Amino acid sequence: MTGVPLRVGSAFPDPPFEVPGPEPAGFDIDWTTAIAAELGQPLTVHRYEGADFDGIFAELGRSIDVVASGATVTEYRRTLARWCEPYLRSGQSLVVDATATPGVHGCDDLRGLTLGVQRGNTSLFTGPDGRSHVEESTMSLDALGPDTATGWLPTAAARFQQTPPGSQLAWHDAPQRQYVVTLTGTLEFTTRDGESFRLCPGDVLLAEDTAGGGHRWRLLGDEPWTRVYLQLP
Questions:
Q1: Number of Cβ within a 10 Å radius of residue 122
Q2: pLDDT of res. 70
């Protein structure tokens, strides 16, 4: 195999994995360059530009030999290719103000302190790359007597809907911009890029990925999915 190029497929840009520029760069390029050198093969980087990221796997054995593109391992993608052990795992972190709480160096130091967490609003949107992406945030609530509330939000129509346990829906775009308020049931949503999140009772989803790769969902547990759709003008 010496002298035969190792053809690597990567989707640009996706820093720090794939960094745009005149020459291919980034974490994935660095480690595949090292692998190619160990094999005694030159490296050839093929820039994947398809709108559907999962399409990169269809190029295996054709225009590329390996995918190195910060790809998330999902059950669906396991059916498309053989995977090595993950070389990078990302997770969640706790962030503190080092000046205000200089004594916090680990979880044990959090006793007696107030911990802030996000809950409530998840957005599905179509990014500049034409793919569906996920963003989690919290709603801004202002004082309203003894309560807190948003301002009045304009809506075009509303509908209640219930789906039986065990249901799922294949790849699709949002039919229109809308809020989806989950009343019962827990769902797992996945985008074609492998981003995933769960909706639980009380969560609000802003669905506005009306074009592009879309998303799919499946209902977990033995409860039906009861929700309210609030279409936006």
A1: 20
A2: 81
pLDDT tens for residues 90-118? 655 677 888 888 888 887 887 887 766 54
Q: What number of CA atoms fall less than 13 Å from residue 15's CA on the CB side?
A: 4
Q: What Å distances lie between residue 229 and 62, 166, 181, 205, 225, CA to CA?
A: 44, 20, 7, 10, 12
Task: Please tell me the CATH superfamily of domain 6-78, with its number.
Answer: Periplasmic binding protein-like II (3.40.190.10)
Place of tokens 């609530």: 141
**Looking at the domain that runs over 121-231, which CATH code has it been given?**
2.60.120.10
pTM for the structure as a whole: 0.49
CA dihedral of 100, 106, 108, 110, whole degrees rounded to 10: 30
What 3-state class would DSSP assign to 116? coil
Compute the C-alpha angle 100/104/106, nearest 5°: 155
User: Could you give the CA distance from residue 147 to residue 32 in angstroms, rounded to a whole number?
Assistant: 55
